């Protein structure tokens, strides 16, 4: 195992067989660099620990905790003047507390005269609220504005729910991809994966599934029909007419009549009989749709079913539902802490993505190109 140096520290860096990055020395003498964790929970700080171990630097000295009245408090214990600061924040179940921890730490470092403050947020919260809903709001855009106001100058994230979210920010956003790690898991950990078919649980997920299928040289299947709960079918805010009022004279334009949607019976477009079915998506939160999809695939002849997703939120009683379902294995990355869920459900497996996050930090600090991390990556990945 090779020994590498980062900023004067010695570290052992293990490389995956097919995923390796060209580590070089972090130029700490250039302007100084510190890596902090904004999470007050032990589970949330695990990813920060793995990243700093790969970089061979110590985690910055800061204390993040909740006061007795539940107010968030951050005490930075060292000077950060003129330095590049990376704040690693994973999002546990208490999303709002994690956001406040990140905002308060960012503002504390800003007022302490840090040079650049880069947020490392593998799973960006509120990303599902990135479109207008009936009488709702685009909360994701609000959060982007709050982070900029708090002092962040850049963020590193992974597999945004919608790529267009990058346009909400007034500073650079590096949206890394977890697909190389998940594809490597398929190749190395799924026996006879050549007999598999990649499945999109709805037409809206077909592009991602197609990208996996093309890279693995596998077939593609899409679930279409009543089980599809695509976001495009939800109210988008335009179905909010004003209160009716009595008018005289002009009665308005006569617009073409739009027929209501009627979903067809459930259909599996593609052959899954006698095959391994691999369902891919960007996140797995409430698992009812995945469980229903697995039952459909089982009825169509699939003999083994995997679910691959970047972010394993696994809310509510998701572990129990997975354990009792036809799903054989759920594979997610460690962008979100889910150790408790793994204890409840042995079917949940984890892929470590700290390698690419550490390399992104090193390249940004040294002023190197990020293009190396996006080799052969397309917008659909």
Automatic annotation (TrEMBL):
Residues 41-151 form the Ribose-phosphate pyrophosphokinase N-terminal domain. GO terms for biological process: 5-phosphoribose 1-diphosphate biosynthetic process; purine nucleotide biosynthetic process. InterPro entries: Pribosyltran_N, PRTase-like, PRTase_dom, Rib-P_diPkinase. Residues 229-239 have a biased composition (Basic and acidic residues). Keywords: Nucleotide biosynthesis. Coiled coil: none annotated. One of its GO terms (molecular function) is ribose phosphate diphosphokinase activity. Gene3D superfamilies: 3.40.50.2020. It comes from the Eukaryota. Residues 229-248 are annotated as: Disordered. One of its GO terms (cellular component) is ribose phosphate diphosphokinase complex. SUPFAM superfamilies: PRTase-like. Belongs to the ribose-phosphate pyrophosphokinase family. PANTHER family: PHOSPHORIBOSYL PYROPHOSPHATE SYNTHASE-ASSOCIATED PROTEIN 1 (PTHR10210:SF28), RIBOSE-PHOSPHATE DIPHOSPHOKINASE FAMILY MEMBER (PTHR10210). This is Phosphoribosyl pyrophosphate synthetase associated protein 1.
